Amino acid sequence: MNATPTAFLEIEHKFVVKRDFNRDALFTGCRALAPEREKALTVTDTYYVPPGQADCIYRHRIDKEIQQLTLKSRGGDNEVRTEINLDLGASRSQSDAVEAWMGVIGALPGHGIVKEIRVFDFPDCEVVYYEAIHKTKQICCVEFEAKYADSEEEGLAILQRYEEQLGFDATQREKVNLFDLLVTAQS
User: Fold this and answer.
1) Interval 114-128: pLDDT, tens
2) Is 50 exceeded by the pLDDT of residue 21?
3) Among 52, 128, 63, 134, which residue's Cα sits nearest to residue 95?
4) What are 63-74's pLDDT values in tens digits?
5) Residue 146 contacts by C-beta under 8 Å, 6 or more apart in sequence?
6) pTM for the whole structure
7) What is the mean pLDDT of residues 1-7?
8) Which of 33, 61, 121, 155 has the most beta carbons within 10 angstroms of its beta carbon?
């Protein structure tokens, strides 16, 4: 695969919704747009904050389909940010190795977030509803993430198209990343 200018960018809008949000209406709306596939997963993310680098964060993600170590930029608006994923293979957990690595670079402790997600995959966008928990704090979100966009502008146009079709207003999106919403808000 040739790297595009957006190969290591995440172009995404997150909407925090109330616990009584009508997710069934969202699911019905997504199905009406004919996704390539729909899936439900439990995802465990462990976040590590490197010392002296407030502008980035590491995430170790495990679910039944993937396992990744990700570097994400952090701070400011999370609409467009760096995201570099390393595939660790789903066959066995690499949690011990990731924790040892993070210990060497001084990024311990890890902060776990568990998410119950419903994903609707479209050719150019991923729409995800999730309920996330960290310790006693819970949050529900809908995310729109552009896929395979050749530019930031194209990615943002993709988001706008899906958001409008599903009744979301980009001016109401959350600008803070999930880690900071759930973890640092508790500290």
Assistant:
1) 999 999 999 999 999
2) yes
3) 63
4) 999 999 999 999
5) 11, 12, 124, 125, 154, 155, 156, 158, 159
6) 0.91
7) 63
8) 155
If we measure between CA atoms, which residue out of 123, 130, 106, 174 comes closest to residue 42?
130
Nearest to 4 by CA among 154, 121, 145: 154
**Per residue in 137-171, pLDDT tens?**
999 999 999 999 999 999 999 999 999 999 999 99
- Please, which residues have CB within 8 angstroms of residue 41's CB and are 6 or more apart in sequence? 63, 64, 65, 116, 117, 119
- Measured in whole angstroms, how far is the alpha carbon of residue 33 from the centre of its chain? 21
**Which CATH number covers residue 157?**
2.40.320.10
Q: Tell me which residue range forms the domain holding 51.
A: 9-184
Is residue 2 in some structural domain? no
What is the mean pLDDT of the segment spanning 86-112?
Answer: 90
User: Would you say residue 1 lies in a domain?
Assistant: no
The partner residues of 146 in beta bridges, in order of sequence, read 125
Give the amino acid at 54: A
Domain count, the chain: 1
In a domain, 80, yes or no: yes
**Is residue 65, in this structure, part of any structural domain at all?**
yes
Helices (H), the chain: 23-32, 95-104, 152-165, 178-179
